[in-house]
Amino acid sequence: xxxxxxxxCSHVANEPSQSTCELCGCELDSIVTSxxxxxxxxxxxxxxxxxxxxxxxxxxxxxxxxxxCGYHPFAELxxxxxxxxxxxxxxxxxxxxxxxxxxxxxxxxxEQLLSQxxxxxxRDAAAAAELGAVLQRGSSLQTAAGVQRLTQKATALIxxxxxxxxxxxxxxxxxxxxxxxxxxxxxxxxxALGLYERRTGCTVRETNESLWMWRFSPDSCRPPWVRVS
Length: 229
Hints:
Elements: E1 2-6, E2 12-13, E3 28-33, H1 65-68, H2 77-85, H3 89-99, H4 106-120, H5 122-138, H6 144-159, H7 166-187, H8 189-200, E4 212-214, E5 225-227
Helix pairs in contact: 4-5, 4-7, 5-6, 6-7
């Protein structure tokens, strides 16, 4: 059925011979082919709601259970929360693109703060250079006492920075300490497991050889343990 559309309010007149819009009084110009429906003035048709997103299970690795439950005294809540909020890297990227932000890793944050201190010049630049040397030495430390001494030295250097804000100093301190401790733990993981076996009499096996998933599901028909790799 032919009708005329109003350029001002998009109302479509029922009568093709009509020359003015009965709603706003403007001249009807374009002729359209459309059903003779009369939408209410000022009310637009709503698009259908998109289907609900699929349910994504929260995955908590065995090594993070103590931290998630609050039993790990050295766990940091901010990265822990983000890691478990964004179970999928694609979802994280979508959210960051939507709000125009980019999440930086801890190593990137430390590098950016050290660069900022170096650009400030003077004592801050010297302290930043020495912090870089601390991180370099920390990558080859073989004793926990050595890690502790370097961490204390880094703390003293960071507290003396004057061109870096207090929150940035706290972030730098956390990043440097985590880098030193995590690196030491990674290098000595096998030694720690051997000590655990000697003290407990237990045998640790398949530490990284297989991935097992323990499903907490209301569906009793599904097996709780599933080997996925």
